[in-house]
Amino acid sequence: MKLLNYFLAISIGLLILSNSAQAQCKRFTEKQCLPNLTPFTNNGQINNATLFEGDSANLVMTFYSLLDYRLMVCSHEVLGTGVHFKVQDNDGNILFNSKEAQKNYWDFRVNSTQDLIVSVNAPENSGNLTDIPASGCVSIILGFKE
């Protein structure tokens, strides 16, 4: 019985910590990232992930024809300036690479409605002097204008 209570206490603690991290990530995005989306209007979706050094995340997003878009990736300073993203079509063709463009956003228009794959990569080592890899919030934000 003690083992079950111990397991439940740990599970509840981890759930609370996870919710707290997501709330902090959301606040970071609202204060630090969304203002940089101007003059585009946020589509109402904010996609956040907590990434460790060397991690990556993929997200499939739908883009509708004849709209102008700004796709932006914003990250906590602890991950350094090397967080970058690329956008690919379903055939694997790279449409944009922020590392090559040296900017954290892409302004574009699609001629037909399509799904695109957004891949975000955190740098391998941001100068962390400990053995514990740094982690931070990474937000993928989409804005549009008609």
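[next item in queue]
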Amino acid sequence: MPSKNSVKKFVPGGIYHVYNRGVEKRSIFTDDQDYRVFLNLLKIVLAPKEKSDNLGYIRIKNRSDSVRLFAYCLMPNHFHLIINQLDATGMTEFMRSITNAYVSYFNKRHKRVGSLFQGTYKAALIDKDEYLTHVSRYIHMNPLEINSKLNEYPYSSYKYYLDANHPNWLSVSTILEQFNDNKDYEKFVEDHKIDSLQFIKSLALD
């Protein structure tokens, strides 16, 4: 039987919680450079009007016309993304580009071969606005296990939800529109009386 969320329902305009972890739960980010290379790949692929660029020997194509990124969090052995797919194949092509480029970089840098991720990424369709806000909260709370100050964690989009400025490859408005302002969102995320994991358990990491 397929693992949870491995069978994907791809629909144009769909919003997805996308995630994966390292094979055998190994680290996929070992230091600041690894994290920043992955974030740079997101920028190259998603920044509007960017041309195809390269990361050393890796060529990667811009896909800003087919995918939007709403939120992200990179953890030592897994990652979370919220992706808005604008056409029928955007997310598949986006994820293939990002993961293939990152694995090529990682294996070359760390002198290893073989798979880095635990199979194909998982994708859960978010079909309700209330689920979307709770998934974003769940993702942005991930660093609590290693950093008690969420807004200081450098490898998450959370800080951009609390500030008027954000990179042009990250779309924060769809989620923030569900709140009065940034402070309202901050209170929602950091109010531990609400257990988002229980609320969105079918959309979370298995």
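[queue empty]
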